Fold Sugar ABC transporter permease.
Amino acid sequence: MIMTVLIVFIGCTAWTIFYSFTNSRSLPSGELVGFDQYTRLFSNRRWNASVLNIMTYGVTSLCFTMVVGFLLAVFMDQKIRFESAFRTVFLYPFALSFIVTGLVWQWIMNPAFGLQAAVQSWGFTSFTFDWLKNRNMVVYALVIAGLWQGTGFVMVLLLAGLRGIDEEIWKAARVDGIPTWKTYIFVVLPMMRGVIVTTLVIVGSGIVRLYDLVVAMTQGGPGISSEVPAKYVYNYMFGAGNLGQGLAASSVMLLTVFIILIPWMLIEFRPKSHS
């Protein structure tokens, strides 16, 4: 197991970083060019747009997924009738691939025969919903599709955390006269720290590697208004035949993950002081 990690993870990471400093085109090249690939990367309008798009998508998607997922988990935690059926309905979209989800939502948001056409046929001729063609709104169209697929999974994870809360906590809160919503926010949520962190890591990893949903729904368009880093990497490595540029972008994505994870790991796993 240790050798597998060393060879596959550390070895491939080192290979990626090394060749990002070369002028590799379709095949790896050992000719070092320093930071030239990174200079080209950060001066590339397409890359800068993809970073802005993934940040917009990531922040919006993460906030809404966690909030809506938690509210659904609270709803399911009320021991409602047909809970299994509701849980299956909410979780079912997660079983679909992002390609299927993207195609479905592309049809729904298509102005010619989707939601806009349906509402206009009901007599609301001024209604418009053309986000896939709107440069300013296309990222939020991706967010809607991502929420539809991922919220049910977040709900299930948080529901498992809620079901792990000792019933005595609820009894004590009721005895003290604490409103239910305050109990959830100030008592239950802090006790679910481990589940919440795990959920954030899972959702965050999905955001970083966002690719197939974009390809299925928008192909990065209109223009480059929905371009994302993973698609940039793929296009340069396999489409443009510029291996060095693709690996430079990959290395920046990897560095971003480390910048986020390392401080969290230092805080989460540091030895607890005993006073």
